[in-house]
Amino acid sequence: FMHIQDPASQRLTWNKPPKSVLVIKKIRDASLLQPFKELCMFLTEGKNMIVYVEKKVLEDPAISGDENFAAVTKKFCTFREDLDDISNRVDFIICLGGDGTLLYASSLFQESVPPVMAFHLGSLGFLTPFKFDMYQSQVNQIIEGNTAIVLRSRLKVRVLKENWEKKARVDEKGIILTNGDIESSRKAMQYQVLNEVVVDRGPSSYLSNVDLFLDGHLITTVQGDGVIVSTPTGSTAYAVAAGASMIHPNVPAIMITPICPHSLSFRPIVVPAGVELKIMLSRDARNTAWVSFDGRKRQEICHGDSITITTSCFPVPSICFRDPVNDWFESLAECLHWNVRKKQNYLSSEDEEF
């Protein structure tokens, strides 16, 4: 018999107590300065933890100019995005901000991701279940372990450029590259995506025209503004605005949602996690297409280029406030006011006569 895992059975437990934590703060947001300072003082002085912070966060004058906070910042380990590898140095992550901070945390880890505790201090709180007013007891609980987690699947995306060799022959210093260098550059065009891959028509006024393959078979051609390939986590982001169903993050699936399709019968579809999707410009497409990954790294897709998408082996373990099911319905109610409507009045026996 097939065993279906109860989502509530996934727990965070530590082999040894966590020693290091990465704190991610949305930059240029004055409302987060006080929570950030309080949290960092609590972690370094109260909990004696090694705190990692991104260099650009500390360049904020409101932080660098605070003499009282300087003693704490001296203890920080700093890093720079795309330059320093912190993949094996951090036990867990704390995010301060909106859902974007969790997407950003995901982008910093191209392989396994430490557990993420996300505080709701931004405009949307789908992925950020914790309220900051009780942060000390909640952080203590995570350090002790045994809290519920939800494993949010990611998409592994590879972009192959047909005319890469012509573009890659000379690097930015003018050095001519060998074929070996070109091959390694080609492999480097890989992304881990938590919400969605969006292929759209970009600035063109023509419909986009892209072919969609599933495990090597041409499934359909998408004619319209584009197509969204999303995880269940991304089902409540751009996909829901384009008419998709909302899928709980514990469901192993990939969603394909057309954006304004020029066909009445093209409904969003859900396919099993693990299938390989491939998107290419159709032969008769009048214009190129554009692709972005969780809203970042936007680039042009030309004839012969391909985007390959499958389920990643490296999910994002999100720490739950209560449990995976409760947290999700809470976020639907809070963020989307899901199924909120005025109640009908109760019918009395006199009303029934009419």
From TrEMBL:
List GO BP terms, alphabetically.
NAD+ metabolic process; NADP+ biosynthetic process
Broadest EC class assigned to this enzyme: transferase
According to its UniProt record, the EC number is 2.7.1.23
Molecular function as annotated in GO: NAD+ kinase activity
Asked if the record carries the keyword Manganese, the reply is no
Question: Gene3D superfamilies in the record, alphabetically?
Answer: Probable inorganic polyphosphate/atp-NAD kinase, domain 1, Probable inorganic polyphosphate/atp-NAD kinase, domain 2
The answer to whether UniProt assigns keyword Nucleus to this entry is no
Keywords of this entry: Kinase, NAD, NADP, Transferase
Xref: Pfam families: NAD_kinase, NAD_kinase_C
Which family is it part of? Belongs to the NAD kinase family.
Protein's recorded name: NAD(+) kinase
Q: Which organism is it from?
A: Oreochromis niloticus (Nile tilapia)
* Encoding gene per record: NADK
